[in-house]
Every structure is written in C-alpha cells, then in structure tokens.
Amino acid sequence: MNVINKKGPSRKDFQRNMRLKVRRDPQDKLLPALVKSVRRVGQPGGLFYTERQLYYEVCRELQHERPGWLRLVRTSWRVAPISYESFLKAFGEYISKVGRPPGLIPESPGPVGPAVVAHEPDLFDYGLPCLLVCQHDYIARMLLANYIHMELSCVILGLKAAMPIPNAVAAMLARAEDPCVYLLHDASIDELSLALQFPDLAQLPTDMPWVDIGLRADHARGTGLSLLKGDSQETDAVKRFGHLSRRDMAWLKAGWHAEVAAMRPAELIRFLFRAIGRGKSD
C-alpha cells in the first residue's frame, strides 16, 4: 500500500528551492526587463532620466520576480541583481535594434555649472535663496532637464562646479533673504565623509546655512532601494559619525551603499520638494 505524504516539502527544502528559482541567470530576462523599464522609468508625466536611473529600473524589474518575503527579511536580496556593465551591454543591443528611447539624457563629460546663465544673463542680478549641489553631475543634468530649478526657484550645480561655489552664485545667495545651500549625495561611508568636508570644499561663508539632505542610511534601508555591496569597513572609519543610530552604523560598517540614482526620477523629485520646500517654509 502506497502512503502519500501530505505534509509536502519542509520549510528548509522550500527555501532552498526558492533560492534556486530566483538565482537563475538574470541575463536570460535582461532584455525583456529592459523593454518594460524603458516604458516605466519616466512615469508619470514622461520625465527625463539618465542611463544610471534606467539601470536601477531594470534592477527593480528583475527583483520583482523574487519572493516578497525574501525582499523584506533579507537585505542581501536587495543587492542589484546585475552589474552596470552587463546592463550597458544589453542596452547597447537594445539601441542598435530599437534606437535611443525618448527621455534619455545624453551623457556629457563636463561638470554641471550654473547653466541658467547662458539663457538668463540677468538672473544673477537678483537673489535666489536656494542652491542645490548634487554629488553626481548626471543627477544635476536630469533635474535641470526636468526644470526642477524653475519649480524650486534654485540653482543646481554638480559638486565639481561647486568646489568652490562660483562667485556669481555666491553673490546671488548673498542678496537673497534667508538663503540656504543643500547637498544631495549617495549613502555610504565615503559620501558621509564628503558631507563633513562639504563646507570647506565649497568655501561656504561661516554664516551661510547648509543642509545635508542625504541620502541617509535609514532612508536607504527603509525605502526598498536596490543596494550595492562593498567591503566591510573598519570600526574606526565610522567613529566620527557619532550622530548615527546603531543600526545605521552597522549598515555602513557592513559596506552597504545606496545611490541617489536608485530612486525613480519622480520619487527623487518628490523627495527634493519635501526636503527643500520644507526648508523654505521653516
């Protein structure tokens, strides 16, 4: 007499089978994920975006196939499932077959300075109360392409162009009432060190207020962003960040890294409106 085992696989066997299922070579699904991501990355409203942001949209598409309970309980399952180099290779094939997708911002090697000068030469005769400095030039270009500098009434610079802040921008801030400088950067040990050095790098006047709006480690941990994993850091490397929580310190020491580009363009813009708009209203 055959006995049917109605208990099914054990919990251990189930987890092992799911690991095998979600660890299949993502290259097999890369091109279909890329096609879907091109349609989604600029939504809503057809926003402009960068290659790096499209890369993270592809990562999200691939990660959606992983079991939800794994994404929630294990940080390691939020590691970007493909390398940027693999994405660029697949994207090159996509462009050769379909062409460049609409909304993609062309790569440009130069630093992002006060680009509004060329179009509005009289602007710096007045005062604007806000300067946003972006660690990455490609993020600054994306924000400018979407006219966020007009929406927020601020100047947007890349970090290279803000070391130090150009004289015209400094004079503009000096003429404004309650000016403030905001710094946008990735979340990692190196970027937190950058934030500590920023006033000296930008040569900010001692009476010029500035705000480090992140990304912060707690934001990267709590929003489900795709993460990068580096080498573990020595304990001494994070001692100077005594203002951080224990969980944030442990996250940074483990070598985790979250990029601003991992936020969807619309999500990043909402984040900036909350951070800078709230600062203006205080």
Write structural notes for this entry:
This protein has 282 residues and is of the alpha/beta class. The protein folds into two domains: 12-98, no CATH class; 116-281, Dna Topoisomerase Vi A Subunit, Chain: A, domain 2, CATH 3.40.1360. The chain has 13 helices and six strands. It is globular, with a radius of gyration of 22 Å.
Produce the secondary structure layout.
Elements (H helix, E strand, L loop, with lengths): L10 H12 L4 H14 L10 H13 L4 H6 L10 H15 L17 H4 L10 E5 L2 H9 L2 H4 L2 E5 L8 H9 L4 E5 L4 H14 L7 E5 L2 H6 L5 E2 L16 H8 L2 E2 L7 H17 L1
Helix pairs in contact: 2-3, 2-5
Q: What order do the strands of the largest sheet run in, or round the barrel if closed?
A: 2-1-3-4
Query: How many domains would you count in the coordinates?
Result: 2
Beta-strand content bin: 5-15%
- Secondary structure category: alpha/beta
Radius of gyration (Å): 22 Å
H/E topology pattern: HHHHHHEHHEHEHEHEHEH
Uncertain segments are: 1-6, 18-25, 69-73
Please estimate the helix content. Answer: 40-55%
Q: What is the architecture of the largest domain at the second tier of CATH? A: 3-Layer(aba) Sandwich
Approximate shape:
globular
What composes the largest sheet? 4 strands, parallel
CATH topology of the largest domain: Dna Topoisomerase Vi A Subunit, Chain: A, domain 2
**Number of helical elements:** 13
Oligomer: single chain
